[in-house]
Write a structure and sequence with these properties.
Blueprint (H helix, E strand, L loop, with lengths): L9 E4 H4 E3 L10 E5 L15 E4 H4 L4 E4 L3 E4 L10 E3 L7 E4 L3 E6 L6 H8 L2 H9 L12 H5 L2 E4 L2 H22 L1
Parallel strand pairs: 3-8
Antiparallel strand pairs: 1-10, 2-9, 3-4, 5-8, 6-7, 6-9
Length: 179
């Protein structure tokens, strides 16, 4: 195991607790959100902007997501820059976007999206992903098979909530101190 965790936690592979890169079935005329890589904030932000597009124009050749999914960049340097977000408030609850994202959709009652977001932004995942990169310099990616087999520490849900609240509290304090 990568590091010690409390006895009440467990280790799992991502493929056991999330659906990875799911596809959506949406009516062609439905207006959905479209997100480009440049529209995702980096660092420890959890925000993005989107355009509105008809599903029929984005259902092929793009990555699919829906409200509650966590998306993170798989290509350098966006991966290391922590370009990632929880997709919420999408047009009609659905979206599509850059092919350079991995989408994680938690299985019911396994983990909170906020906890998953902080995991994909963690130094542990960034370092692990860099070790698993494939491709040529400047175009290296954290591949789907490697993502599926990534180990994630999973605390009980109450602890997940506590961790997420503490991270938000700390980030708010840092932001306040910087202003």
């Amino acid at each position: 195991m990568p590091f010690d965790i409390p006895d009440t936690w467990m280790w799992a592979r991502l493929k056991e607790v999330v659906e990875i890169n799911p596809r959506n079935t949406v009516e062609d005329e439905t207006i959905v959100s479209f997100v480009e890589m440049k529209s995702l904030k980096d660092g420890f932000n959890n925000s993005f902007v989107h355009e509105k597009r008809a599903w029929k124009t984005v259902k092929s050749g793009f990555t699919h997501f829906q409200n509650g999914d966590v998306g993170f960049a798989k290509i350098t340097p966006c991966f290391q820059n922590r370009k990632s977000a929880i997709f919420n408030e999408l047009e009609n609850s659905y979206g599509a976007g850059t092919t350079e994202l991995h989408i994680l959709r938690p299985y019911q009652n396994t983990m909170f999206a906020d906890y998953l977001l902080w995991f994909v932004k963690s130094p542990y995942l960034i370092e692990y992903g860099k070790q698993k990169f494939s491709g040529t310099a400047g175009q290296q990616r954290f591949g789907t098979d490697e993502v599926k087999n990534t180990l994630i520490p999973i605390p009980p849900q109450v602890e997940q909530e506590r961790i997420c609240l503490k991270i938000k509290e700390m980030l708010n304090r840092i932001e306040k101190d910087e202003n």
